[in-house]
């Protein structure tokens, strides 16, 4: 690792820790302050923290690598994500912000489900908590693995050093500052990511000589490299765009909507968030394509396509700037880890410890429990990450689908349909999660493809969850309400 890179990364780590200490006073006052920042986030922090915690290392490594290898056919997933994020801001965010405050000032999704349906059985809280704890612990582990591999591939350091350093800094600022620290660091990390995703492709584009050399190289690639319909059928396009469905059920993203200071701030947050997301994905797409042209033009070799951003950062910039750009990759990884840690911690504290072990715990005790939960989840994630277990990384692909199917349909129905019942919500949540897990791991094949390759698991998962929620809710509703539901559905069809 060069001296300039060490300086840049050291400054980045100190900045993250400084933000954590800044947020410590407010976060330590009560549980709502620690877990939701006292519902006081401004629109800019809400938007960029949601975006940064969403995108992770995928936008700096995964997406550019996919474009580098197979071309513009990968834009379908980007289109799906953009549509999903916009609809999430437009429809889910305003109602969720209002409903969670009215539902007993719910600060977690399990808390919201229990209060929304007056669930004295606590089944909704238990099921939703288990989904969050299990999936996010493994999801967090994959982020820690990514941090270890970044230090190994980019800086020539040991995998273990990167693993412990990444996890250690995230745990410290999350431990001290809670949700406010996580949101503020995500805001800064989102800014760093955006600057990097604009700067790297622009400098690389200038270095290769502009549009004509770029076009010449891309035209020499495989047939259909620049064709978004190349080799994909309707099911492949649906699968790619279906990633957008996941937004409605991602706890680490929608918790930002619960924490914004008021509903009136959401339109501003939507404009900021969608602008950031659009510029970021365009920068990632450009990095993959311009990076391919740069590598071909200079006769270089790239062993792993997903390291194209790291490669360009190292060869095009001074070590000081290179360190800053590599910090952007680390920022993407850490922003997601911190959000997942806090959501899992909040579920362990509010939905397990307080709900089942100490109902009358003081705020001071609950904040302490939240901090201990952060450490506990991080230790388990680190333990899993030390094995470099590829199956953990594989879980990321269907954790998004699992959360989207388990939570997305039931959250939307609970916000927009008065007829949804407690039993229907439980059935939808359980059937959505089970469908995704079965579909993703089934040995059945269609057209010589596994089910998940043929159609992304989130599609059947959301369909089954929505159907189960509606049917079970109708079965538990008075016949008059069922008839009213059919009548409204008929009116919608006539329109």
TrEMBL record:
InterPro entries: Na/Glc_symporter_sf, Na/Pro_symporter, Na/solute_symporter, Na/solute_symporter_CS, Sodium:Solute_Symporter. It comes from the Bacteria. It catalyses: L-proline(in) + Na(+)(in) = L-proline(out) + Na(+)(out). The chain crosses the membrane at residues 6-24, 66-87, 123-141, 161-180, 187-205, 225-248, 276-296, 308-333, 366-386, 398-417, 424-441, 453-474. The keyword Transmembrane applies. Gene3D superfamilies: Sodium/glucose cotransporter. It is found in: Cell inner membrane; Cell membrane. It is a multi-pass membrane protein. PROSITE patterns: NA_SOLUT_SYMP_1, NA_SOLUT_SYMP_3. Its main location: membrane. Keywords: Amino-acid transport, Cell inner membrane, Cell membrane, Ion transport, Membrane, Sodium, Sodium transport, Symport, Transmembrane, Transmembrane helix, Transport. Catalyzes the sodium-dependent uptake of extracellular L-proline. Belongs to the sodium:solute symporter (SSF) (TC 2.A.21) family. NCBIfam families: Na_Pro_sym (TIGR02121), sss (TIGR00813). This is Sodium/proline symporter. It comes from Pseudobowmanella zhangzhouensis. The lineage of its organism: Bacteria, Pseudomonadati, Pseudomonadota, Gammaproteobacteria, Alteromonadales. The gene is putP.
């Amino acid at each position: 690792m060069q001296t300039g890179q060490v300086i840049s990364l050291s400054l980045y780590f100190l900045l993250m820790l400084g933000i954590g200490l800044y947020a410590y006073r407010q976060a330590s006052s009560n549980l709502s302050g620690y877990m939701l920042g006292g519902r006081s986030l401004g629109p800019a922090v809400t938007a960029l923290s949601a975006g940064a915690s969403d995108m992770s290392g995928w936008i700096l490594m995964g997406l550019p690598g996919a474009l580098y290898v197979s071309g513009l056919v990968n834009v379908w997933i980007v289109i799906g994500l953009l549509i999903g994020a916009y609809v999430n801001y437009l429809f889910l965010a305003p109602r969720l912000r209002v409903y969670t405050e009215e539902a007993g000032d719910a600060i977690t999704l399990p808390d919201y489900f229990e209060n929304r349906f007056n669930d004295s059985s606590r089944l909704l809280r238990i099921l939703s908590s288990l989904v969050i704890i299990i999936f996010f612990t493994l999801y967090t582990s994959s982020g820690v693995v990514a941090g270890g591999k970044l230090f190994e591939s980019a800086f020539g350091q040991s995998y273990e050093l990167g693993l412990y350093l990444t996890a250690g800094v995230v745990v410290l600022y999350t431990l001290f500052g809670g949700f406010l620290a996580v949101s503020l660091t995500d805001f800064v990390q989102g800014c760093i990511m955006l600057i990097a995703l604009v700067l790297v492709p622009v400098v690389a584009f200038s270095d290769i000589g502009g549009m004509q050399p770029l076009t010449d190289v891309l035209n020499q690639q495989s047939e259909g490299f620049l064709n978004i319909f190349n080799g994909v059928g309707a099911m492949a396009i649906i699968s790619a765009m279906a990633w957008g469905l996941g937004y409605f059920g991602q706890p680490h993203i929608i918790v930002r909507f619960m924490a914004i200071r008021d509903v009136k701030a959401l339109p501003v947050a939507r404009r900021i968030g969608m602008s950031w997301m659009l510029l970021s994905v365009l920068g990632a797409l450009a990095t993959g394509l311009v990076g391919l042209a740069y590598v071909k033009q200079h006769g270089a070799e790239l062993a792993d396509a997903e390291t194209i951003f790291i490669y360009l950062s190292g060869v095009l910039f001074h070590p000081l700037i290179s360190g800053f750009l590599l910090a952007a990759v680390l920022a993407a990884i850490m922003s997601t880890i911190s959000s997942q840690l806090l959501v899992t911690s909040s579920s362990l504290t509010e939905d397990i410890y307080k709900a089942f072990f100490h109902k009358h715990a003081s705020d001071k005790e609950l904040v302490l429990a939240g901090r201990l939960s952060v450490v506990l989840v991080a230790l388990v994630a680190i333990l899993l990450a030390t094995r470099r277990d590829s199956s953990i990384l594989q879980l990321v692909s269907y954790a998004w689908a699992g959360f989207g199917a388990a939570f997305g349909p039931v959250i939307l129905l609970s916000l927009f349909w008065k007829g949804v019942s407690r039993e229907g919500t439980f059935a939808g949540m359980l059937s959505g999660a089970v469908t995704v897990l079965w579909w993703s791991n089934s040995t059945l094949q269609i057209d010589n493809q596994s089910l998940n390759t043929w159609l992304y698991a989130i599609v059947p998962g959301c369909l089954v969850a929505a159907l189960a929620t509606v049917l079970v809710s109708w079965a538990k509703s008075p016949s008059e309400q069922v008839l009213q539901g059919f009548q409204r559905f008929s009116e919608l069809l006539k329109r």
